[in-house]
Amino acid sequence: MKISLFIPCFIDQCHPRVGISVVQILRRLGHVVDYPVAQTCCGQPAFNSGAWEQAREVARHTLEVFRDAEIVCIPSGSCGAMLKVFYRELFKDEPEYEEACALGEKTWEFASLLVNKLGVTDVGAELNAAATFHDGCHGLRELGVRSEPRALLAKVRGLRLVEMASAETCCGFGGTFAVKFPMISTAMGEAKCAAAAETGADCVISLDSSCLMHLQGLLDRQGSRMRCLHLAEVLANNAA
C-alpha cells in the first residue's frame, strides 16, 4: 500500500524523530511511504483562533498537495482531527467542500491506521520500561481513538502499561490556549504530571508531540526523570 505522510509542524520543527519513526514502522510492515514535500501547516492555529479565511487559504494548499494520495497518515490526533473533522466545517458552503470530505475519508491517525486499517497490533517493538498513557483531547474526543494505542502498546515486549487516574483529562496545552492562558495551561499540565508521577512510570506516551512537549517542559522544570515519548518512537524500537 502507498501511504502518504502528513507531518505536523511540531514534529517537523521540534520532534523530527517521530516522523522518522513512522517511516521506519510503515516500511517495516512492507508499505511504500510517500512524503509530499510541498506540504505545510494544516491551518489549525488560524482555525482555532477564529481566522477562518486565513485557515482556508492554508487548507486549500493541503487539499491540493494530497489530492492524489491513496491513504494519508498523520501521527497526531490534533492535526488528524483538523483534516478528518474540521475541514468539513471550515469548507461548509464552499466550493471545496466535497474535496475536503474526500480527504477526510482517506486520512488516518497513525495508531488508528495500524490497528483499524492495516489490522496490525504487533510491530516487533521492545521497550523495557513502565509507561503511562495520556489521551490527547482531539484524538480521543474527535477521532474516538482510545483502544488502538493501548492495543499496540500491549504487544511491546518488556513494556508495562500503568494507567494514570486522569488519562483522559486535558494536559492544558491546547495550542493557542497555552499562549492566551499560560497560567491555566501550566496548572492543568502540572496536575497531569502529578497524575503520571503517581503511577511510578518511567515515561509518558501519547499520540501528539504538542502535548508531550508541554508535559516534558513541565517535568524538566520539576527535576523529574520521566520521559515523554510519542507512540511511534516506542513502536520503532525494534526488538530484532
Question: Can you walk me through this structure?
Answer:
The structure is a single chain. The protein contains 13 helices and 8 strands. The chain has 240 residues and is of the alpha/beta class. The chain folds into 2 domains: 2-116, no CATH class; 123-235, 3-Layer(aba) Sandwich (Rossmann fold). A 4-stranded parallel β-sheet has the order 2-1-3-4, with helices on both faces. A 4-stranded parallel β-sheet has the order 6-5-7-8, with helices on both faces. The two termini are 24 Å apart.
Report the structural category. Answer: alpha/beta
Mean residue pLDDT: 96
The sequence of SSEs as H and E is EHHEHHEHHEHEHHEHHEHEH
| Major β-sheet strand ordering | 2-1-3-4
Shape by Cα distribution:
globular
Radius of gyration: 17 Å
Count all strands and give the number: 8
What is the distance, rounded to the nearest whole angstrom, between the alpha carbons of the first and last residues? 24 Å
Major sheet summary line = 4 strands, parallel
Compute the number of structural domains: 2
Binned, the helix content reads 40-55%
**Low-pLDDT sequence parts:** none
Number of helices: 13
- The amount of beta strand, in percent, is 5-15%
